[in-house]
Design brief:
Blueprint (H helix, E strand, L loop, with lengths): L18 E5 L3 H12 L3 E6 L5 H7 L3 E4 H7 L2 E4 L3 H12 L8 E4 L3 H4 L10 E3 L1
Parallel strand pairs: 1-2, 1-4, 2-3, 4-5, 5-6
Helix pairs in contact: 3-4
Length: about 130
């Protein structure tokens, strides 16, 4: 039988003082960003200039930045854009803004497994 987790099972204090960037605001990005915001986590959405989602995210009460600015601001970066766009976006906007101890997160490991994205060893990678 599946184990179901509830809010009372979570220790959100682990995110105290942490800044989270959600890169992308599609089906997964908006759910992650809104959940974190509603849970009191310091979160921003990273998008490209001119994204149709920029206004939508702001209307839903989220702070929005370019992906590069969001990556520079955050110490936890969740990449939730289509797989075929991730490697280019990572190389151009995330990698230059990574710092030792940052956490890079993915919804699944396609780009990590196939070495399309190779994070530095001083950055944690999670799914």
């Amino acid at each position: 039988m599946a184990k179901i987790y509830y809010n009372t099972d979570c220790d959100l204090s682990l995110l105290d003082g942490r800044k989270v960037a959600i890169i992308g605001y599609g089906s997964q990005g908006h759910a992650h960003a809104l959940n974190l915001k509603e849970s009191g986590v310091d979160v921003v959405v990273g998008l490209y200039e001119g994204s149709k989602s920029w206004k939508k995210a702001e209307e839903q009460g989220l702070k929005v930045m370019t992906s590069a600015d969001a990556a520079a601001w955050a110490d936890i970066i969740m990449v939730l854009i289509p797989d075929e766009l991730q490697a280019k976006l990572y190389k151009e906007t995330i990698e230059p803004n990574l710092n030792e101890g940052d956490m890079l997160m993915f919804a699944h490991g396609f780009n990590i497994h196939f070495n399309q994205i190779v994070p530095p060893k001083n950055v944690d990678v999670t799914m």
